[in-house]
Specification:
The strands form four sheets. Strands 1, 2, 3, 4, 5, 6 and 17 form a seven-stranded mixed β-sheet that branches. This protein has a six-stranded mixed β-sheet with strand order 9-10-11-12-15-16, covered by helices on one side. Helices cover about 25% and strands about 30% of the residues. It has a single domain, classed as 4-Layer Sandwich (Nitrilase/N-carbamoyl-D-aminoacid amidohydrolase), CATH 3.60.110.10. It is built from six helices and 17 strands.
């Protein structure tokens, strides 16, 4: 399997973003990628008002476009994430959809962890506009189990571990990591999640400035189960593509069997968190 992480600089102009996404997805497919991951909120990224105005249901035009493109190119396409509007719900969902080569949805994941933080002197309150998902999701791409995550989920190793225990060999990570947290933690966390779970991580990040004063780090990359960065985007928009050697993954898991050596019978969650 060859996988590609798409790096974009999205804004509030949905058609402009879809045009950029299509150009990059086609380029990655022409390079041989059969699994392509778009970044978080690839179709619209900006202020709260931008997200509310651009939100769509799962049967809206953005995912119709993604399904048609996946079918035409015969690829597994992780449509990064979109701001999803759901009937009867006041807040949006931050939703990632894995679409198969037949153009059908293989997995729908709604981001679980809300980015409610203060970094670089700026306050982010994702939960004011979006509600957290409640389901951990895996799907299958080319016969390989795929785990679905989004951005801030990267800081929660328990989610990645559950995906690995459920059989995920590859994890898709669409993101819009801030420049402050990205410079400090992005590379370390992506490699850590790959190493801990002996999984491939396909991390597709936004890059550059977005409406509302936001700025994303970039450095989209594909990392192998040993923590080696196989491919990385160093500049602006583009893609990182690499072959995923599943035999090598089997060798890593056999020679250093940290997943097999788990002792779940003695693991207990504290009744109350100290933080």
């Amino acid at each position: 399997m060859r996988a590609a992480a798409i790096q974009m600089s999205s804004n509030a102009d949905k058609q402009r973003n879809l045009d950029s996404a299509e150009r990059l997805v086609r380029a990655a497919a022409a390079d041989g990628a059969t699994l392509v991951v778009l970044p978080e909120k690839f179709n619209v990224l900006g202020t709260r008002d931008d997200l509310l105005a651009g939100a769509e249901p799962l049967d809206g035009p953005t995912l119709a476009w993604a399904r048609a493109l996946a079918r035409e190119l015969a690829i597994d396409l992780v449509a990064g994430s979109i701001p999803e509007r759901r009937d009867g719900r006041e807040r949006l969902s931050n939703t990632s959809v894995h679409i198969g080569p037949d153009g059908r949805d293989r997995g729908v994941y709604r981001k679980i962890h809300m980015f409610d933080v203060v970094v670089g002197g700026r306050e982010y309150r994702e939960s004011e506009t979006e509600e957290p998902g409640e389901e951990i999701v895996t799907s299958a791409a080319g016969g390989v189990e795929l785990g679905l995550t989004v951005c801030y989920d990267l800081r929660f190793p328990e989610l990645f571990r559950i995906l690995a225990v459920r059989g995920a060999r590859v994890v898709a990570l669409p993101a819009a990591f801030t420049t402050v947290t990205g410079a400090a933690h992005w590379d370390t966390l992506v490699r850590a999640r790959a190493i801990e779970n002996q999984s491939f991580v396909v991390a597709a990040d936004q890059v550059g400035a977005h409406p509302g004063g936001m700025e994303s780090y970039g450095a989209s990359q594909v990392v192998d189960p040993w923590g080696e960065v196989l491919a990385r985007v160093e500049g602006g928009e583009g893609f990182a593509a690499a072959d995923l050697d599943l035999t090598r993954q089997d060798e890593v898991r056999a020679s250093l069997p940290s997943l097999a050596n788990r002792v779940p019978a003695v693991y207990r969650w504290p009744l109350e968190a100290g933080a």
